[in-house]
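User: Design a sequence. Structure:
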């Protein structure tokens, strides 16, 4: 029984940055969120066609967020150290920021966005430029990749709409002693921090350990460890192995570690498995919206100039939910957004049509306030922009609460 608890309104494709002549034909959908009473899974009510989001024009380069390069290098070294896999596959390999830490003769990628699959192919990694499905899992097997000791995915599994097909495809090609490790934003952290902007078209689901445990078990897989990470505003890294068949003679049994029980208990104590908890979250989201608009309008009326750093998918949700931006609200509360991603520069933000420009083209001291679209990189950005702060400039964020800091 899927029950709706949050409506974030009419939203565009979160990472579809536009030229002016594309404004009229822009695609919009209703972004609503449901809670499944059986699995406790939180998902979008209506999924957007994957091809509309993930295609050869996809713009999100993981490596352009410098802290993530270090994160994936350390993750690879840790996995290499502990599991010493002979064969590695990454689902959602983007620009190869994780793949590049492994030798390319026993490592392959899966990346549906052709422009990114070409990047890793050129780096020497065989890359299947298709969506992860049972059909592809079979094809990779038939191509001679019998199975994999390590299957890794970051900020990707929560993008896959059919989780049963996703997980049965993994089980189909995971070696008997293999481990499936994936990390995605944490539902518990989202509710604790009020970071509702983790909800957008690409994120078909916002995962709890509880929901994943239920759905993985159903597909013959089990969680044996959970790492709670600070990246992306709070993520969980989930370690999975085969659910050993009875008697599990041929399978290396990986005992369920304390971290799994601790996370399940923490989620239950927080009320994450109760529909009411999600209904209460909705009230917090509505307050966050009103507080942010009120603050920006007041500052604007006081003659203050406001811009934003980080043309994130997250800020697409916030700007369109809060009616911040040029179209159709004509509320020029935020004059422009800077972003390090070349493919976003010189274009307009999805739905709200705020111009996106290179950071170098802007003198921050011309502005009084900066809204942090990339709040998950606050420390890095505040450090880079220390001169702005010394000159009296201030940052605006909405996580955990709307405020100036
Ligand atoms: O799940 C997803 C996460 C991993 O990334 C994807 N579905 C889409 C994307 O979401 P996002 O756009 O909200 O992610 P980030 O990583 O918060 O985006 C940061 C943006 O900010 C990038 O476009 C780069 C930019 N940036 C910047 O302009 N200056 C980042 C830093 C650190 C900076 O100093």
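Assistant: Done.
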């Amino acid at each position: 029984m899927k029950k709706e608890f949050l409506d974030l309104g009419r939203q565009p494709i979160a990472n579809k940055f536009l030229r002016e002549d594309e404004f009229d034909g822009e695609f919009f959908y209703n972004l609503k969120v449901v809670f499944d009473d059986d699995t406790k899974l939180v998902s979008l009510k209506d999924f957007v066609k994957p091809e509309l989001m993930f295609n050869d024009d996809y713009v999100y380069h993981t490596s352009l967020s410098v802290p993530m390069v270090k994160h994936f290098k350390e993750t690879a070294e840790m996995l290499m150290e502990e599991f010493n896999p002979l064969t590695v596959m990454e689902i959602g390999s983007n620009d190869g920021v994780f793949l590049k830490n492994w030798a390319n003769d026993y490592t392959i990628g899966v990346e549906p966005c052709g422009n990114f699959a070409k990047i890793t192919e050129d780096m020497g990694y065989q890359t299947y430029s298709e969506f992860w499905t049972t059909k592809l899992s079979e094809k990779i097997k038939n191509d001679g990749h019998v199975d994999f000791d390590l299957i890794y995915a970051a900020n990707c599994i929560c993008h896959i709409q059919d989780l049963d097909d996703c997980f049965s495809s993994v089980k189909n090609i995971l070696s008997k002693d293999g481990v499936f490790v994936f990390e995605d934003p944490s539902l518990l952290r989202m509710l604790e921090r009020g970071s509702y902007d983790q909800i957008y078209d690409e994120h078909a689901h916002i995962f709890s350990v509880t929901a994943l445990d239920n759905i993985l078990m159903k597909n013959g897989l089990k969680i044996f460890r959970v790492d709670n990470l600070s990246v992306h505003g709070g993520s969980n890294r989930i370690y999975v192995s085969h659910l050993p068949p009875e008697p599990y003679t041929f399978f290396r049994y990986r005992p369920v570690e304390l971290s799994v029980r601790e996370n399940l208990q923490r989620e239950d104590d927080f009320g994450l498995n109760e529909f009411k908890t999600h209904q209460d979250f909705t009230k917090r989201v509505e307050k966050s919206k009103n507080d942010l608009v009120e603050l920006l309008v007041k500052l604007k009326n006081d003659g203050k100039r406001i811009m934003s750093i980080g043309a994130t998918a997250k800020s697409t949700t916030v700007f369109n939910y809060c009616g911040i931006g040029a179209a159709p609200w004509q509320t020029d509360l935020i004059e422009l957004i800077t972003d390090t991603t070349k493919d976003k520069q010189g274009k307009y933000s999805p739905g709200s049509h705020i111009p996106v420009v290179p950071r170098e083209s802007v003198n921050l001291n011309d502005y009084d306030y900066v809204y942090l679209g990339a709040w998950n990189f606050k420390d890095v950005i505040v450090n880079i922009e220390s001169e702005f702060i010394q000159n009296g400039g201030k940052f605006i964020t909405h996580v955990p609460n709307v405020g100036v800091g």
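The chain has a mean pLDDT of 95. Residues 275-301 form the longest helix (27 residues).
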